[in-house]
Amino acid sequence: MKNNAQFYIVPTPIGNLKDITLRAIEVLKSVDVIACEDSRVTQKLLNHYEIKTKSISYHKFNEKERIKLFLSLLNEGKTVALVSDAGTPLICDPGAVLIEELRKNDIKITALAGASAVTTFLSQVPKGGEEFAFVGFLPKSEGQILAILQKFAHTNTIFYESPNRLLKTLEYVKKFNLDAKVAVGRELTKMFEEIVVDKVQNIIEYYKNNVLKGEIVVMVYKQEDVEFSEIEILAKINQLRQKKFSTKEISTILATLYNVNKNEVYKLII
Q1: Is 72 exposed, middle or buried (0-12, 13-18, 19+ CB in 10 A)?
Q2: Model confidence pLDDT, tens digit, residues 171-188
Q3: What is the largest CA-CA distance in the chain?
Q4: Per-residue pLDDT tens over the stretch 211-225
Q5: Is 158 found in the same domain as 94?
Q6: Which of 8, 28, 66, 166 has its CA 20 to 30 A from that of 104?
């Protein structure tokens, strides 16, 4: 006998409460249960649209126990909707483990279209092409961040960042590429929404003198291929040596920056 249970993935506004679809409101009103990251955050949205559906917390700390509960409800023929605090669920939010289990149990999943900080940001900044790499939240260590910047040096790279970490992260970008072009978007869809596009050093100076609040999306623009210049690379080697980078790290960074063979850079270093 086929299971008629239904699981919905429902995007919610990233800032402005009006940025929700009629279908999303309809689904949230009709399901039996809403699974949410933080019930206090979700309740503000539910109250705004007079949605009376019961909500249950679902986050990375209670994922396993909640999966059993939701499977039980769905096997009873109930309907469940998953929301995150803001934006589209499973985009840097919990849910991947749950979705895997639902598919194993042949539960029907329907994803609704809706708000996303990534697409909202990308639609209003110059990109120079359609290709981009979205890496979610960056790791904390300098080495890991530099490795990501190296990996996607020739692709526009998008990531989320918090206000208290933005300046430090931009310093890492500057260390990787002094001339990097960066776009920063914050408070998207809200009253004080701001988009800044400039060289990384200029953006660092700008945010040193301006209060940083709200969720932040950043794009590091791809590097164009540059002509091999031995004099210029020698200057970069000296700069990176002063920053205590190892020979291996310098070879990797400059080979990526200048699109040249790593062994050529290594010869210059030694």
Answers
A1: exposed
A2: 999 988 888 999 999 999
A3: 73
A4: 888 899 999 999 875
A5: no
A6: 28
